[in-house]
Each structure stands twice: as structure tokens, then as C-alpha cells.
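Open question from group meeting: does this chain pack into something compact, or does most of it stay loose? Before anyone orders reagents, we agreed to write out a predicted structure and look at it together. Recording both the input and the output here so the notebook holds the full record.
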Amino acid sequence: MNLAIVILNYNGRHHLESYIENIIAHSQGYDLIIADNASTDDSIAYIKSLNAIQLIEISSNLGYAGGYNEALKRIQGKYDYYLLLNSDIEVTENWIDPLLSAMKDEQLAACQPKIKSLEQKELFEHAGASGGYIDKNYFPFCRGRIFSEVERDEGQYENAQYITWTSGAAMLIRSELFHKADGFDSDFFAHMEEIDLCIRLGHQGHQFKVVPESIVYHLGGGTLPYDSPQKIYLNFRNSLFMIAKNHKGLLIPMLFKRMCIDGIAAYKFLFEGKFLFFWKVFLAHISLYQNFRSLLKKRAKLKADRSPILKYHGNILSSFFLERRKVFSKLNKRLIKR
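C-alpha cells returned:
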């Protein structure tokens, strides 16, 4: 099948040096493209020194969302599928074929492999694990990772499964649907843009799947560490943006509830002495107010597409903290439905 593996790079020569040969070795027969997001290190010179690698140069750092949008726009119409891959991924033998086989299901918009930790290979990795879901309040979690609780992979999630969202760390997506949906929302810049895209496509009736037969290992935190204040800001802000655009029901009550929950998290940061984290949550809420009009315009544009999406119709916060259901296998699966 006509497929391009597209890696977005920003000042990541050290990752490319570590992982690109592994990717090349296990991806024979498919075009490998590196899109450089205006790196200021010597990434471009290094990429040009590689054999059989196509380079797309982007003139300014557009973030993950905008960078991929620009790169894929330049190759639009050439490929049936895009395999979006982080630069800090180690792939395994025959990792692509199971993903392509899954896409024979024409209802699938995208799928992902099982994503495990590169540093602790017996564990799932935070960003995607064995497939992503959201709860009724739009909190994301995964088979194999709920909040900071990351499970050991003991074969408990080996079945291919329909999910709410596929991880942007390693996502095979139909090119036609990516462009039809106008790609990622560039206003997100980075973080949760893949969840937003999957929800939008899900509202159009498309489905998503994890294919654990395919395995990759992810370093994680390659651009921003998981405890970065900027990552805190982007995650809180983009979650609110996603709700404002995509929530099917009454918007203001949902946003109010979610912002109250955010406030509790912010004060927890404050009591823990994480003053900058507290400030970043506040700034995320300010950004919602500043962008509310444009978000409502996007919401109106998407209003016609409102098929129910697959999600966890429970409260993952209460399941995790009150009921002590800290692993996916302990959740009430009857609550996972459209």
C-alpha cells in the first residue's frame, strides 16, 4: 500500500542519530520523510547526510500540530496513508504490516501499535500505551496507563480493540481523512491535538483501533519533559479547547465543571509548592477566555458532525482516586460505549 512514514523533527539530531537507523532497517519498502520544524541545531545537515530519506524544510517552528499540517500538505495526494512517528521511537521487526492489515476495515480512520517504554521495556509508555480513551469529563487515559499509574505489560492487553483516540507518537491514518478534517488544530501547537482530531473524526462516524501485534518503544518527553510547566499549560489549555469545540451537550455547564476540577488540581499544585504549575493552570483558563469566540466558530462548523463517539461514560477521577481502580482492567467495561 502507498504509505509514507513522516517524522517531525525539532532540534532532535540526538534522537535521529539514536533511532533513525533502526527505523530504516524495519521500514523497507516505504517512503521515509523527515519534516524539520526550523531546527536551530545541525539536524538538517545530518538529515541530508542520510541515504533514502526525504527532507521537508519548514521555515518556522509551527509546533507538532502546525508542523505536521504543513509537512503533509506538501505531500498531499501522493500517499494513501501517513504513518506519523515521533523521532524518539524504536520500532520492531514487522511493525507496519499489522497496522496496514487492520486498515482493511474501511470504518477505521486510524490505528496505533502498542507503545512501550524504551527505558523500562517491561512497562507501557505514558503517551498512548495500548490505546486511548476519554471519560465523560474529557480526561484522557489509556489501556496500560491511567494518570501517572503505568502498568507492566504482562500480556493483559494483547487483543486488538476499538478505542477513542490513537497516539500521535505512532499513528497510521488515512491521508484522505486527515486532509478532509483539515488536519490537526494548529492552535493547539502541541499536546492533545491527536485526541481532538480523533474526536472530530469520531463524530463523523469513523473508528479507531489499537493493534498490539505491532510494538514500538518510546523514549517520551523528547521535546518537553512530562513535568515541564509548559507541558502543564498546554495540556490544561488544549483540554479546554477540545471540550469547547467538540462537546455534544450543553457547553457552559461542561466547561464550568471541568474548570472547577482544574481549579482543584491547581490548588493541589500550590499546596505542593509547585507555584509555576499553579500559574500555568491559571494562564490556561485565561487562554480559554481569550480564544472563546474563535472556538465557538469552530464548534459551529463541526456541529453537523455529531455521531456518538466511543468513550468511558464514567468518571475516571472517582474511579481512580475513590474506587482505587488504578489499572484499566479494573474499570467497569460496560461504561465503555458509544
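Observations to bring back to the group:
The first strand starts at residue 3 and ends at 9.
Residues 275-302 form the longest helix (28 residues).
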